[in-house]
Fold this protein.
Amino acid sequence: MVRKTFESEIQQVKDDVLILGSMVEKALLDSVEALKKRDIKAAEKLFLEDREINKKRFEIENHLMVLIATQQPMAHDLRLLASCMEIISELERMGDYAKGISNINIRMGDIPLLKPLIDVPRMAQKGVDMLHRSLTAFVNEDVETAQSLPVEDDEVDALYNQIYRELMTFVIADPKTIERANWLLWVAHNLERFADRVTNICERTVFIVTGEMTEIKSTDDEFWEQRKHEE
Amino acid sequence: MTANNHSDHQYVMETHDLDIYYGSFKAVTDVNMKVERNKVTAIIGPSGCGKSTLLRAFNRMNELYAGTSIKGQVMFYGEDIYARDVDPVEVRYRIGMVFQKPNPFPKSIYENIAWTARIHGYKGKMDELVEGALKQAALWDEVKDKLHQSGLSLSGGQQQRLCIARAISIKPEVILMDEPASALDPIATLKIEELMQELKKQYTIVIVTHNMQQAARASDYTAMMMLSGEGERSGTVIEFDVTNRIFTNPKDKRTEDYVTGRFG
């Protein structure tokens, strides 16, 4: 290999993206766990730990800038480094959703959960699982997985709808529960957004390998196309 | 060759199945490429793959070396420049060339251009021609107060722009540039590249460069050359595309390896 130094720098970036990814995965699972236990101390700690995620993101971003400036990446290398820039920004925002959940936990104070959490941890688990596989696909440049993952977002959406319906039955039965229902709806909303961003990471992996910048279609896109067709 | 009205042609030059020989050695094989009007076309590739040989075939400059010959065709506005009735001097007058090392004549800055124009039969106002050419080559402001000093007193970058001024003073249609900036420092290099962007509005440029960043920055199209074939290997164009594509998503693995610096 002629560009040994550059190769090892690229490997370093990939490793760092994986580290950032696992920080985000842990943050999300921990924030849901803390909520489940109504552990405000843990939530406060997690809230502050989001800074570490941001710090790591800036560190990788800086490394990418230096590589672009000094190594003049071309073709596949350029697509990879440019995509890393995008992926770390997605990861940082996914970290913000975890922080959002900790924030809700803190703000709820001593108000008890409206109901024990069942589907919320499921959503979190599914989201983290998708993120993990999308990053594995990124590192392995596995287009097939990258293209097939986004459709799994439907499962997260289905859980979100289920949580919504369930919370509404509480609210209808007793309007006084509206605030507590609302807290949980926000938690679910954060989780739904989290899983959505996995698609963006998958799109980058496809771009790195093929050079094609395309959107991977979601069920929502198909719904819109269907609707337009019927008009 | 026919007169200068070719505004309807998209492509100024085309090669058809072009092979170039040094004696019996086939240095370049089977090149089919088109040079678009008012664009910069770069030829890149590793050392010894025939880039300069190909470039020199575009204005019959190879013939100045003994034993060279070609097969196939090099067309200039649809006319074969190697046809029997074509005068190679006229070819080189319509298709100018700038070399790697600046080579001003050992004459004054003014005479470098005036003398060139004169021997090409220019009879108009000489001061205007000299000023126009130096302005087009972005050199006027730097030399207007010392036009009668020797061209050799200029810096390397200025000398190269003087050579460009000299080349354009006789109004060619194509300017061939063989590594025009490789002997220059980075600032002088950028000046040449900026100049190419200005010049292409009026001329068509083909440039050979070892500097891939230069091709990426300055050209619209890029031809990637490489040695290929079994046994006695010969240079050929393995990929030709818009420059942006060559440097972001080339089709050929060998181009990818070359532009990412993994060739070797």
Remarks:
- The mean pLDDT of chain B is 93.
